[in-house]
Amino acid sequence: MKKWNMIIDVAECTNCNLCTLATMDEYVGNDWPGVAAPMPRHGHQWINILQKERGQVPMIDIAYVPTMCNQCDNAPCMKADKTGAIGKRDDGIVIIDPVKAKGHKELVDACPYGHIWWNEELQLPQAWPFDAHLLDQGWQQTRGHQACPTGAMRAIKVEDDEMARTARDQGLEVMRPELGAKPRVYYRNLWRFTKCFIGGSVSAEANGVIDCVEGAAVRLLKDGAPVAETKTDNYGDFKFDKLNENSGRYGVEISTQGRKKTVEATLGVSINLGEIKL
Amino acid sequence: MNFATLKLSLILLGLSWLLKFQAWRHPEFRARLKERNLTAQFMARDEEAGRWFTFRDGQITSGFGVRKDADVTVAFKNAALGAQLLMPPINWLDQINAQKEFSLTVTGEEDLTNWFAQTVMMGQSVGFKFGTNIPDGSTRYCNMTNGGPVFVYVKDGKIVRMTPIDFDATDPQPWTIEARGMKLTPPRKTTLAPHGQNAKSIVYSPDRLLYPMKRVDFDPNGARNPQNRGKSGYVRISWDEALSLVSTEIKRQKKTHGPGAIAVSHGSHHTWGNIGYYLSALFRFSNAIGMTRVHHNPDSWEGWYWGAVHHWGYTLRVGQSETYGTVEDCLQNCDMIVFWAADPETTSGSYGAQEGTVRRQWLKDPKLGIKIVHVDPYYNASAQFLPGKWFAPKPTTSPAMAMAIANVWIKEGLYDKEYVKTHTVGFDKWAAYLTGDEDGVPKTPEWQEKETGVPAKDVRALAREWGRKRVYLAPGGWGNGHGGACRNQTGIQWARVMVCLTAMQGLGKPGVNMGNLQWGCPLDFQFYFPGYSEGGMSGDLENTAMPVALYQRMPQLPTMNSSFQKIPRIFMPEAIFDGKAEGYPWVGKSIEHQFAKFSYPAPGHSPVKMLYKYGGSILSTMNNSNRHVRMYQSENLECVVNQSIWFEGEAKFADIVLPACTNFERVDISEWAGLGGYGHHGQQQLNHRVILLQSKAIEPLGESKSDFWIFNEICKRMGLANYFSEGVNEIDWVKRVFLASDLPKVISWRKFLKKGYYVVPAEKEKLRAPVSFRWFWEGRKKDVPEAQPLPSDYSGEYLRGLQTQSGKIEFECNSLKRFKDPERPPIVKYEPSWEGPHSPEFKQFPLQLLTPHSKYSFHTQGDGKSSFINNIADHRVKIGDWYYWVLRLNAEDAAARGIKKNDLVKIYNERGAVICAALPTQRLPRSVCHGYESSAIYAPMGEPGKSVDRGGCLNLLTPHKTQTKSTHSLAGAQSIVQVELWDGRIEHMSETFAAMEKDKEIKRTLQEAQLVPAK
Asked: Closest chain A residue to B354 measured between Cα atoms?
């Protein structure tokens, strides 16, 4: 049985919000019986884009992570649901029945991902139903997938074992796997959001002129032992990425043409060491 | 009865049958027939042959012959002409010629003649079938937003959804570019900009104007109370009353004050279409009534028009260069792209949706091996998407950085000396300035560091890398100018130095050009469809691009404004409240047109006493806009009409408000990114040329009406309706555009109505447009498909060389040697901004504020209106019960002020104050903050001009002074401000209102002393 999954590439999301806007376009002012009652015009983010800035001026980057109902296979909301309002379809999609769920505000707290939203006007818990009504009409993609200009958001319908294989082969991750909720929304390049970097710019003075140092060897030391190495580019820049946040003290050892310098850094979040003059 | 009269009689008999048949068939036509009771007739003047039609309570009776008591008579000179003109298909050129020659005349009351003519035309169009039926019971139409084309799904008279267009099996395949072992081809679909995907929410907006209104304390026959504009409320009135008020006032103004008394003003954009667009219906209307023209400054092109043109010409592209073939050349040959104040991921190339995004994504593939550099004080959306070294010069200072790059190139021999020798003039002069030979100050990387804050070592490294690589320089969102730094105080210097840098590296060589993949796709540019700036139905040969192609293809009555008075837009408020203003024109014909200073008021004209305003964008799109608030409250304006879709901005300052509908509630026709004119072949931004029939998807909400209808109704009351409409309906104009284009060669009208769009097949590979400037580099005649510059503007053989006097790129500009301007010397020099770190006021206002275009809304479109976009946290943030505009601050600057994320802050200077939601960030260097301009909401918390605004109108704070004295160039993309935690106080006196109070005080004192002010 093929089931729906979502694959999101964090490195390709530009925060254009077309997925969030397309989803509002689909649900605000429209009633899709059995799937979703109208979404309120304001206040709900059925697709919610998280963001993370890393580093300091001028060495920074920014990652955007679209999140949504994870369509969990071991859904915490279904476990908490005493009303039978939340069901899982054969194609993997989780639906909160807009009639049965009426008045059950407690379901909002049942989602550890914060993706059940309370509709005050309708007294209804709501989540993004994977555009099930459109897929049932023969659509091959969700609204967010269709609207995404970079292909950062892709809905795919495959067998579970194929999805598991894809996830393994491509290093896809899910949000908070430790919860055991088994989300059907997968992420590529999530490290851009979860990990951090140490970077800097190497310079040196010659004949009274300061210039960038290209090609300097840079080693990252942890407890005195090298854990990574790189070379500076033509701007003297180097960067060690995919490090764990709050992973403590590091040494950055720079050597070029007989000159050597080591800088200490304590890693909380990403850090730009700035200009390091040899 | 001769043959001609027989033929005419038979055609007219056929017409009577057609009208009766259509009435039987179509309820809407039956309803139309019930609108008037009259007798109308067609006749041949010499033979006195004809046929009459009596409309009585919806019934038609008709008979042979001519009636003396007819209310309406359409007369042909003779029967032969009548038969010729009435015989379908209609030949519009014959129609127009007959009208101009008075061999086709119409007599009768304007309301009846126009009704009869449009009814006869409706007899043909009433059966048109629009859209495609969908199995779920909805109908799928097409339409076009400023942010891309949409399918519009409609059910039970309501818009269900809008989506981008996925092409079907019958649509053509896109182009493929082979580059460095890769085959690159775009997907077979269209994309949308965020404001395009947002469209449903602005159609169904609580801010829609649903009926005409009058300000409660505006009495056209008594006290008009102009001082209360923006303060007092409104009362609903009928369309009849509104139209009568407006038309009576127009006539009164002309009779009482004389020519020039009425000014017509519009924004720079509108809802999309070739008929409803401001350059179309509005221009025809305003030419018909006569007006003082509000002459626009080249607002997205400033530095290019006033600066770059002197180096390389391209006035008909407002100073920006040709861009053909550059996508292919860039992907195949370039090693590095320098994005310089260029953020196409935010600005979408204006109308290009996310089409360029798809192509720029290819740059992320290491197989292409194209490096990227970003120069922008803000770590913009393009820098976020496309990793590369980020240079963050202080706002307005980057011309100094560019000069330092050139300095390094000269010092280290890293430029194309042969090219400079053969393809340019005046380099020695500029080189002497750069090396310091001229003024003793070498423009070194160290020199620029003091200005820009960018380390000298980084600039030197960039210069060296650039000098050794084949580089595409991408200034502005289009990659060849447009927006970016050309709109701040040093924009002219910036655009000039950008041209000089590309000239030093051999512009036109493989891999060396301007661009960032936003323009230059290999499309078919021979397939004709008019761009919006070709003026649609305007008939305006002077102020649109109509003479280029559309006028020949779509014959129509020409229109001309009888008044030559114009107001330079930047100084519109001063023109009203001071009664005088001076400016320089934006005219693309030649380099020298920009030197022709003009003054308001024009000789022998009335000052402006009435303003007919289209939409409500000005308060947040013009600079130092408390001036506009003051203008609206001036007693010099006796009447203000605003025709708007939404009740926002200055629509709330009008005396009479006319509700217009959106483009989803009327019919139109257009091409995506089809700009024409100064944006010739704007479709180059797209992966596919898509032409659309913009179907009316739903009935206009409330009593709102199409602009065409509103203008025509006003014209009826002035005897101008048949001149304005040419007696036809909107759908007929749409069909005339269709017939004028190349569409009939490839798709039938009926199929086009049903399918709603046509994709022009990509150009065959061997027919693709050549690469821009390659001809120039190779010394050939110009071979790219643009008929510009004008033939007389070549100094040598036609098509050889550029528009400059030398025909070469001029480092030392001949035009600026002929026109002496101390602020624009013949070679470009660095002069620090008159508002910035060098200003004495910088102590008091120590932050530089950047106000670029929004990533989510399109100017004021898409913002406010309770739209979906307001939910985007990077656009507005809800704090308490209000959605506040976002202000980005460097994180340390914020911390130093005790400001945290989502704190309410007051950003202010002497011009005004705005309350925003703070967003501390590392995307800005120290002392720089950033907030989008063009909030749709203007919300003074107390009295306008004397209190803080919480709508987000950051242009209340920006300077209106022009970049230089002898240009009409906005400079307000940067200003100096202070930011602090908001203490909740709402009073803030703007300098504009302080000056006004002072003026009043002086007047009062003089009056009390019974003195008259000295002249």
From this structure: A149
